[in-house]
User: Fold these one by one.
Assistant:
Number 1:
Amino acid sequence: MTVKSILTEPNKLLRRVSKSVEKVDKEEQSLMDDMLETMYAANGIGLAAIQIGVPKRIIVMDLSRDKEKKEPRYFVNPVIQNKNSEKATYEEGCLSVPNQFAEIDRPSSCDVQYLDYYGKKQTLHAEGLLATCIQHEMDHLEGILFIDHLSKLKKSMIIKKLSKLKSNQIVI
Ligand code: GNR
Ligand code: NI
């Protein structure tokens, strides 16, 4: 397992639409292992493959707060159904939009169909933070970031800040 570097906005790759996985093979499992390791190292609760530059429809997640009891979840080719018309608001952050946070409204619950780590079909009813996180990650698969849900002004302020930070970064 390897900790990969996480792409940050602005980066065109983050805007790519990810491709469906035909078969969950060793290559995909190894990618999921790396994604999980990368997510834990960055203290995130979710990660989409495109965030480490791989445009495949794969998401990993772990909402457990306890570092001793890991609860990794793997979603391949996830599809969301039955979005609740009721909305829930969470303060969201994103590893690809470092140090920026904003309240975002999303359907408060939904069902998800996906393939697991072994390529087995699964369905899940998601509520609360799980529902929010899955929808945030699904957005990544479509090239959408949480800041795209904000007003033009708020979004451009955040992108400006991140661009400035990037131009100050020295690459070794
Ligand atoms: O670590 C993360 N926390 C988070 C908090 C609220 C809503 C969504 C998230 S996902 C984010 C990790 C990330 O960027 N996943 O794509
Ligand atoms: Ni994110």
Number 2:
Amino acid sequence: MRVGVFDSGVGGLSVVKSLLEHKLFEEIIYFGDTARVPYGVKDQNTIIRYSLEALEFFKNFEIDLLITACNTVSAYALDEMRLHSDCDVIGVVEPGVLALKNAVPDTDANILILGTKATVRSRAYEKGLEELGYRRHSAIATTLLVPIVEEGLYEGEVLQSALHHYFGALEKNPDAIILGCTHFPLVAEAIDGYFNQKSALIHSGEAIVEYLEHHYDFTKRFEKTELKFFASENPEGLRRTAKEWLSLD
Ligand code: DGL
């Protein structure tokens, strides 16, 4: 199966990492809209327009499935993309909610959702959680974590002050944290450390693998996956990041 993976920038590589670990696809074509990242501060119409343009890009490749490895796109543009696509388009929000349910079935659990401004504004996660009966949830737009990850600051002072800025006022440790942005797994260790490893972390990459394995037939696994990386700006930079994050030769 040939899959397309789309993100606003490099964050979706955290999803590619999970897809590779589970050997799901023969070929992965990645597109990061690095010229226009971040999407998370843009409005709905712009996010939809950019996402439809990305969909046009993937039409050059005869993909069997498109994964929008971006929570912001998944929260706003999925329906439009599905309307214009010849193949299935899967987002990361629904898989994230289902993964949360599997990891923390207690509907009294205290859930913290982290995302971009746009994702938090959409209430996409809250709606999904409420449908499953979860009532104790809150969301924080941890917007600064996106450029921090794009800068490669996965540890250190800048990251720690951002975490303190966003979480310093929380009264209680959450039982679970939804990393509702595909950039955030890159700083998951620091987030986990901030909460003393006491909260379950839900990661879009792992969530989508769970979802795919449930909905598609993956009897055949691929020891080797062909990877193609494209970006709307500085594709070399994206390839370098991919090499580092995915430990490619
Ligand atoms: N990786 C994107 C997400 O999952 C966010 C980055 C951005 O703001 O473009 O929402």
